[in-house]
């Protein structure tokens, strides 16, 4: 009997095959104390070396199948295992508290992962999965448990699992693994990113899929819509969906190398990529990105045991600017605090840390930290087209203080004889409703705006988007949000400035027609979303999107707006 389940579409494609239900022997950690700490330390170290060897092999496998950018995941995993602080803490637990090796590893890795798990940003939360992946392998070797090798699969299957780690995903052979379905996960997890690179359809966040599917049962999934059907009633319908998808994919691939232009010839809009590290540039270029709309510089701080020096930052910024040539690279200054913590700096305890001492507020208070970043950015500006963007700006005084500080550092560098770019743009994120409401005045001083919709929406709706109880209030298409966007974009244009967007909404297929109608100049999104966004823009005229937006602004609910957009897209 057919059984339909809905999850999160994480990697596009249609798959129909037998289920390969992944069942690993559970890791059970004993609380018993060791009588021989040195023996436990030796066991821990030997298991560590075996895990490191595995990671080297997986990195080589990923390099051959996925390329350098994705293989870098395992370099990051190796860095976790190589972290002397982590190993020292584990050894201390064994020696001083007489923990057995497995318990010590688990306690320390859980503490490390919890830091990322508590974060609001989905991308950062998914990094906790990396820590669990790498320590899971380490623990299995300590406990002498089997480590499953998915590379041995030699028949067409859809893998069904609670979760697939990056190391497991890298082993998958697309010839045989036609798709995967997991209880947990989201679009920004490394497993999802790798699935998209391997072009394996994936649906995540299915919650109970492992309980619903029997080994060898037929299963079908749609990696775009998130639909899964167990023992499908009509396999021919899925075959038809697969053929339609392949035709659409063939069409989308042609948009990677095209110019972004609307149906009526407007070619002023840019489609850009969001990145977290210099390695991510590869994906933006491969998908036809026309710039970097957001480089999250906090990765340089969070992947460190100290505030990164001016020179350390300069080298990373320079790489990105050089790789992007004459295309704009917008680098966000340190957006730390709230849910993003540093191991080497203690933020004050606050009732509402998301509304407290963070982002530009921290930078303006800690000028020593801010100075190193600004000088690094200015030095790197000599190697490309740089936009410096300040996060969480609430008042004009804040923006002017940050801009004045930047210009002061520019003068000092030039006085030192250090070359600085002559085409730097200094802008701000619009993520606080007060900034959107006052956009016309901000545009007198800012060279550009970039809307951070994730925060703008949750601040506007007074709803934590990570709270399941109020998640229904996370409504990008709500008319109130569209009106705030209109104020922002109109405010920028009134003073001849450009307005971009770097939040999730920029790559949302249903939001793109509305953003076109509002006059958004630059859409920055995950690299893989660029071809689809370009194809949508190519099918629409500016006039019809303006008419769409005018109607949407007069509606009452997000559902009404969505229906309006659906009708327009269905006619194309």
| Basic shape | globular
What would you report as the Rg, rounded to the nearest angstrom? 25 Å
Which strand order does the major sheet show? 1-8-7-3-4-5-6-2
CATH class of the largest domain: Alpha Beta
Query: Which percent band covers the strand fraction?
Result: 5-15%
The number of strands is 16
Q: Please summarize the sheet with the most strands.
A: 8 strands, mixed
Structural class: alpha/beta
**CATH architecture tag of the largest domain:** Alpha-Beta Barrel
The figure for the number of domains is 3
* Unreliable stretches: none
List keywords for this structure.
23 helices; alpha/beta; Glucose Oxidase, domain 1; 3 domains; 14% strand; TIM Barrel; 572 residues; 8-stranded mixed beta sheet; 8-stranded parallel β-barrel; Enzyme I, Chain A, domain 2
Could you explain the architecture of this structure?
By secondary structure, this protein is of the alpha/beta class. The protein folds into 3 domains: 3-23 and 157-231, Glucose Oxidase, domain 1 (3-Layer(bba) Sandwich), CATH 3.50.30; 37-142, PtsI, HPr-binding domain (Enzyme I, Chain A, domain 2, Orthogonal Bundle), CATH 1.10.274; 270-542, TIM Barrel. It is built from 23 helices and 16 strands. The longest helix has 30 residues, at 37-66. The model has no long low-confidence stretch (mean pLDDT 88).
